[in-house]
Design goal:
The complex is a heterodimer.
Chain A lengths: L21 H8 L4 E5 L4 E3 L15 E4 L3 E10 L12 E7 L5 E6 L12 E9 L2 E8 L2
Antiparallel strand pairs in A: 1-2, 1-3, 4-5, 4-7, 5-6, 7-8
Chain B lengths: L5 E8 L10 H16 L8 E5 L10 H8 L6 E5 L5 H14 L5 E8 L11 H7 L6 H17 L3 H16 L14 H6 L2 E4 L1 E2 L9 E9 H6 L6 E10 L15 H12 L9 E2 L5 H10 L8 H7 L15 H5 L7 H13 L12 E8 L9 E9 L2
Parallel strand pairs in B: 2-3, 2-4, 9-10
Antiparallel strand pairs in B: 1-7, 4-7, 5-6, 8-11, 10-11
Classes of the chains: A mainly beta, B alpha/beta.
């Protein structure tokens, strides 16, 4: 199957950040996966929000994730919406981080028949437009 | 709610069509005209409107007022509900609450969308930030993630999903409102062989987006009697859960909000799942039916597929299910899709379901689902229990 625009090859639409999520994307530029942390609740949260989902407070810190994770669930996508077209089957996974949050993203360097729930994965980066976008890959 | 003080006295569903080219206001007009004729009332009786939001006029921040104007409605209460496919059931409850609060007397509950002809939706939010760049194929992608996890925890019986697909398709064959393209027989083998969209979600797991509208007339039972209403169904229990387990950052994504919404609705109605005579669950994907069977208490958690295999879910079975074909086999009228399940439940309770009329029609259970949040199952869950008037 020909691949006109491959979601795994860095040809992705750029994310459109909000003002309150800008630190996440600034961190991504430096290769850091930043999570919001509520120091009162002692818990991380993801995706970025204007308040703590635990307490409603706005006193949130940004802390870098360690970059490890495990696959909570996955799907092998045989189609992708525009601007992607003619994709080969690719993997989308929900990755659980030891920081206590989950991220939905692609698994790269991972043939679809290799992915398993519970599989150890590690952080990697690809380009989305001119921005760094976090993905994961098998952690050998 | 179970004092039977509120009554639904008429309803109308348009035909569900793919790319009809019709405007959402025209679909809404057809639904309203049909509903007031069915109720046998004059339009001037309507002093309240509860409408579902839609994709096709989504750019209009004054949608409900503008729509009311096109329909020639002068109102004392006007409400738009944006719980997606959960909005139709939600609006019956909102209408009942508004009537009981003395804000109005007779409400038109309306759901219309022409999403397959015109879609002005621009959801944005975290989707344009974290989801679109990964190339996920919309709802089938999210339900692929959900189905894979369900399979891991409990085992997903594809034959059970195939049986649901075929049961609903057989019902659509008897429903003249169902989308023409879907009104052809289906086998379990064809379900299993349908193209993979987002493994394990196949094409025949999914709804097809169409155009259509439904309208319902809700008033007090006392007013219904004064108006000489020829038919009456009472909403007797309702529950709603928005953003189930929201603060949990690593929830079990097979846990859905219908557990909470269902418990509230059954308690209000004084009924148990075993007493439900027909079940009309919101069906954007087949697995959503399995999860709702479990979380509403028809069976244990993880036993949904077994329940499907052990029961006759056809219109003449022990638990008739989505006897109009559901949205998967009748078509999903955009954000008005959830009103299809409600319209079919009412047709059954009114005794107007024609050749697919269920025998036991004292009550029916209808549900709604709307919105897909980040990394979970669905954002809104509604449960509505209806009883035919004695």
């Amino acid at each position: 199957m020909s691949t006109d625009l491959d979601p795994l090859a860095g040809q992705r639409p750029a994310p459109r950040p909000h003002d309150f999520s800008k630190p996440f994307w600034d961190g991504a530029r430096e290769g850091k996966l930043l999570l919001q942390y509520d120091p009162v609740a002692g818990r991380h949260q993801f995706y970025p929000r204007p308040v703590s989902v635990f307490s409603g407070r706005r006193e949130l810190e940004w802390r870098a994730a360690c970059g490890k994770g495990t696959v909570y669930t996955y799907t092998v996508s045989h189609k992708a919406p525009p601007p992607f077209k003619n994709v080969s089957p690719f993997v989308i996974a929900t990755v659980e981080l030891p920081e206590g949050v989950r991220i939905m993203t692609n698994l790269i360097n991972c043939p679809p028949d290799r992915v398993r729930i519970g599989m150890a994965v590690r952080l990697a980066w690809v380009k989305a437009g001119d921005m760094n976008f976090p993905v994961f890959e098998p952690d050998p | 709610m179970n004092d039977r003080g509120i009554a639904i006295i008429g309803c109308h569903e348009t035909r569900i069509e793919l790319k009809s080219g019709r405007h959402v206001y025209d679909l809404a007009g057809e639904a309203m005209a049909g509903a007031i004729a069915h109720a046998g009332i004059d339009k001037s009786e309507i002093d309240g409107l509860a409408v579902s939001s839609c994709f096709s006029d989504a750019g209009n921040p004054f949608y409900s007022i503008v729509l009311a104007s096109y329909l020639g409605l002068e109102l004392d209460w006007c409400q738009i509900t944006d719980l997606g496919g959960a909005s139709a059931c939600a609006n019956v409850a909102r209408a009942a609450a508004a009537i009981r609060a003395g804000l109005c007397d007779t409400v038109l509950v309306l759901a219309a969308d022409a999403q397959s002809s015109e879609n002005k939706g621009a959801i944005g939010a975290f989707r344009s930030e974290f989801q679109y760049p990964m190339g996920i194929m919309g709802p089938p992608g999210y339900f692929g993630l959900l189905s894979r996890r369900y399979d891991h925890q409990y085992g997903l019986d594809l034959k059970a999903l195939g049986k649901l697909a075929v049961t609903q398709r057989n019902h659509a064959l008897m429903n003249h409102n169902a989308c023409d393209k879907l009104r052809r027989p289906l086998t379990v083998e064809e379900y299993l062989a349908s193209p993979m969209i987002s493994d394990p979600i196949r094409m025949l797991d999914c709804v097809m987006v169409c155009d259509g509208a439904s309208a319902f007339v809700v008033t007090t039972t006392a007013r219904a009697r004064e108006l000489g209403a020829r038919r009456m169904v009472h909403p007797v229990g309702y529950g709603e859960r928005v953003n189930h387990l929201e603060a949990e950052q690593c929830p079990d994504i097979t846990q859905v909000g219908h557990s909470a919404a269902g418990a509230r609705a059954f308690k209000a109605a004084g009924l148990t799942p075993a007493q439900i005579q027909s079940f009309h669950p919101y069906d954007d994907f087949l697995i959503a039916i399995v999860l709702q069977l479990e979380h509403l208490g028809f069976c244990g958690i993880g036993h949904g597929c077994r329940f499907v295999m052990e029961h006759d879910l056809s219109w003449r079975g022990d638990l008739p299910l989505n006897t109009g074909g559901g949205q998967i086999s009748a078509g999903q009228a955009g954000l008005a899709g959830g009103a299809h399940n409600l319209a079919e439940a009412l047709r059954q309770l009114f005794g107007e379901a024609g050749e697919r009329q269920v025998k036991r029609r004292d009550n029916a259970l209808v549900t709604g689902i709307g919105w897909i949040p980040y990394g979970r199952n669905w954002g809104s869950s509604t449960v509505l229990i209806l009883e035919a008037a004695q």
